[in-house]
Here is the input.
Amino acid sequence: MELFLSKSKSAPLPLKGQRHGLRVRELLPIGGVIVSILIWEAVSRFGLLPASEFPPASVVAQALLQEAAGTGYWLSIFHTLTTWAMGLAAGVLIAVVAGIVLGRSAAAYRSMRLFIEALRPIPGVALIPLAVLWFGIGQTTKLFLIVVSVFWPMLMQTIYGVRDVDAVAIDTARSFRLSLGLRVRYLLIPSAMPYFMTGLRISASIALIVGIAAELVIGTPGVGAAINEAQASGARPEEYALIVTAGALGWGINAIFRRLEAAALHWHPSKRGQG
Here is the structure.
């Protein structure tokens, strides 16, 4: 009897057609990458674009393997990811604290709304000249730019999440005299978590983009600076190999944070079946 009940409660197995459709959806991105690489190879090999400036994918892949065999390549990635992680953590922490305050206080939000709307559209890379004047050329400048760029999307997502708490649920919690800790745990966090995780995923990608852009412009150690060095020396295959590396880092970070988002929101209707 217990065995029958356990089987009846288990999730239904997908049909054959559904399994086939799932495999197709999983293979489509891989097929798109393969087709793009083949087009890249053909465009360069057949002279549609000059091979000296746009080397074939096979040549770039060989250069990438050679770069990966040296310590300088991995050191550049380490510098980029270290500053990315530090800037992302600092920017998210500041934005969440400020977002909770502004989200819970309508008066505070109204008083800061004009300031937020004026500064939020300014891209982080536009602040590079100002940051260089303040902090000079170094890791501090790159860290500052990442923090500023991460702050705005995370701030707005936190504000939206905090303000999305159901007013009836808040009144019910007050009527039952729930403590602040219980209200935060059972009302604020579940309501704001979808917004928070979305903001975190977006901010992680923005942090990497701004960090590499700062390395390109300022010359601080990292993947961006390595791209600059390869471009200055005319090493086109190495330059493209490093650009591919930057793209791979962005893809990997986005994939990781999508997994984290799906895991953190496994209870949410929009994330059921994902993982």
In short: The first helix runs from residue 2 to 9. Residues 17 and 245 are 37 Å apart (CA to CA). The chain has a mean pLDDT of 82. The two ends are 32 Å apart (CA to CA).
